[in-house]
Design a protein that fits this description.
- By secondary structure, the chain is α/β, with parallel strands linked by helices.
- The protein has one domain.
- It is built from 6 helices and 4 strands; from the N terminus they run αβαβαβαβαα.
- It has a 4-stranded parallel β-sheet.
- Helix content is 43%, strand content 12%.
Length: 151
Amino acid sequence: SSEETKQFLNYIKYADLFISVSGDCLSEVNGRMNIIEQVLLFDYAHKHNVKTYICAQTMGRFGSDIRWLVKRILKSLDLITIREDITYEYFKEIGVVNNVVRTEDLAFLLNPANEERFKEILDIEKIEEDFLNNKTVVHFTNSWHYNHSFV
């Protein structure tokens, strides 16, 4: 609702720090309006002197018709950390470099769960423990960076 939007913008306006940890919100895959909404939120925070940080994300590609807007706003942010080389290289290509740092995906920075917590997670997610016995489980995800899916 518009009241919730006003309240959210008020939270940003009076915050000390605005951190985006959405993962991959800034890409054409999610639609142009999504990109525009996201960068306008960053711009809103920046214009209210709120430190703005995009944390460990995959971003891009941006269509040429909105690249100028995205680039202008991203260059104004306090810090952008990027979680993989492809986005890092793309940002160099479009000239967003001064406030960009290459980092890792936040998931890989977590300490591993102990055995008790591991079993609790299996239970919550309804994964039978014997499914994992003697198996290596690997998760893949699609990315705009590739023109094909992994199986």
